[in-house]
Specification:
two-stranded antiparallel ribbon; mainly beta; 8 strands; 106 residues; Thrombin, subunit H; SSP1_head-tail_sf
């Protein structure tokens, strides 16, 4: 059994893609499955996207692999919306996935 169970202390909600309206525009994300995660802030630093500086806060999220969302998915945590930028499986523990997520404004 994995030793990570005691470190997954934060409750996160996956946000499922909302339906489309009559005009074809994407709807608001709807709450999906909840899961436990370990979330820590990443060091702040200047990030460049294209020709502009980006100052969005980033987080390292660790979850059980079967509950981990795919890249581009949205998570709700403590009233924040996080977008998954990358996902890798932990080589030390195949049951865990580690993601980098960026906070997005509502």
């Amino acid at each position: 059994m994995s030793g990570i169970a005691g470190t997954l202390r934060e409750r996160v909600m996956r946000l499922e893609e909302g339906g489309r309206n009559a005009a074809g525009a994407a709807g608001e994300p709807a709450p999906g499955a909840a899961a436990w995660a370990a979330i820590v802030p990443l060091p702040a630093g200047p990030a460049v996207l294209g020709d502009r500086m980006v100052a969005a806060r980033r987080w390292r999220v660790r979850m059980r692999r079967q509950a981990a969302p795919m890249v581009g998915s949205h998570l709700r945590w403590r009233g924040r919306t996080l977008v998954v930028l990358s996902r890798t499986d932990d080589p030390r523990d195949a049951a865990i996935s580690e993601m980098i997520a960026e906070e997005r404004a509502e």
